[in-house]
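Incident log, support desk, overnight shift.

02:14 A customer reports that sequence design results differ from what the structure should imply. Their input is reproduced verbatim below. On-call engineer (initials T.W.) acknowledged and began investigating.
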């Protein structure tokens, strides 16, 4: 049995070649996102070091944590309490989830819009990259944004005493809007992938 021979592709004309090559203009954008992720990694370790130092009694690290999370109370804070630890841990989780979002945008966006990464068969190839396309990437990004919004909302409710009712309501409405938007994107993607068949 002979395999079908694919005809050689014709060279592109100058204008189509220029338009197609313009996708490489996105490369500096993805490199910039990699640099931004480096900033997030540095911020993560700074906050983690402050948390560990505060756990061992450092007053300076404790005040840096309190200032960073925006925690305020009438009583003086002289040591870590459960609320501060929870807010700091949620902030660290928030950084991790934003970093995951960056990875999805960098890897998925480059693979979809710029050039193939040729990761087929690589032992560390992400599972979601097997079937990535623009629609799948939109749904995954919307899901990641909802998770990040959930973390922010949880942090706000834990520290609700330092926020006005207007801020609490606004954040809740924004989170619900993100949720409805993600559901609409997923539903639209499903309709485009599996159009309804006409009934006879």
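02:41 Re-run completed on a clean worker. Output:
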């Amino acid at each position: 049995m002979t395999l079908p021979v694919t005809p050689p592709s014709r060279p592109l004309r100058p204008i189509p070649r220029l338009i197609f090559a313009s996708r490489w203009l996105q490369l500096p954008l993805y490199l910039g996102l990699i640099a931004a992720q480096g900033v997030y990694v540095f911020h993560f370790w700074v906050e983690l070091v402050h948390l560990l130092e505060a756990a061992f009694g450092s007053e300076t690290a404790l005040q840096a944590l309190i200032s960073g999370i925006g925690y305020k109370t009438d009583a003086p804070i002289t040591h870590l309490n459960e609320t501060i630890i929870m807010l700091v841990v949620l902030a660290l989780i928030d950084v991790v989830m934003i970093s995951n979002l960056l990875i999805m945008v960098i890897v998925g966006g480059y693979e979809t819009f710029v050039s193939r990464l040729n990761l087929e068969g690589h032992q560390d190839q992400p599972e979601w990259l097997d079937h990535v396309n623009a629609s799948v990437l939109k749904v995954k990004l919307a899901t990641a944004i909802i998770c990040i919004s959930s973390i922010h909302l949880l942090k706000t409710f834990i520290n609700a005493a330092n926020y006005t009712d207007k801020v609490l309501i606004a954040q809740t409405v924004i989170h619900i809007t993100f949720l409805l938007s993600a559901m609409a994107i997923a539903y639209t993607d499903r309709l485009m992938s599996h159009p309804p068949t006409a009934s006879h």
